[in-house]
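pasting for the record
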Amino acid sequence: MPSAIVYGGRGALGAAVVSQLKKQAWRVISIDLAANPDADSSVVVSAAGGSLAEQGARVEQDVGAVLGDGKVDAVICVAGGWQGGNAAHEGFLQSADQSIAQSVSSSLIAAAIAARRMREGGLLALTGAVPALEGGTPGMIGYGMAKAAVHHLVASLALPGSGLDGSRVVGILPQTLDTPANRAAMPAADFAAWTPLADAAALLFKWAADPATCESGRLYKVLTKDGVTRVE
């Protein structure tokens, strides 16, 4: 039975990915702040944290307790969240710190887990953001910086000597996901330009099931217009 780890498996996209994998009879381990009852196993992490090394060690230990000597076919990291704020914003440093924890720290821990717990030839997918490709992000500096770091991580991990030789590493960059939270925050938006969670989850499953369908080191933009989703 193929297996995967979904980091952020209780969030909107993460839950959709877990559901997609389970429909295809995969064994799934969810990692998040809360358990996902649809996954076969859940590793619950603490928001209190500690250093990145301490957090990573705890997650790796808990994953090891679930897998034993086993390995997975894919590690999919869709943990994250959006925070705005420019340098003059009262909560600027706090929002930047949160973005780094949600996007950079989770991606680094996912990479460490993949290097130790993923079969050679497997897939590591990390989540970036389209605005971080387009120069500066003055109204969401911390978020844009964190996502740019994830993009760099994808490129680095795809190179020889990264610790993931023989595997594929890609970035998925949805522009705007159609989630209940986004609809509540932007009720007047054009929802036909938002990517359905099922579309993004299906793409991640496609890559996990056959890593040869994606190019290692590439950042894939996922864009939707008039209800039709395309990948660039």
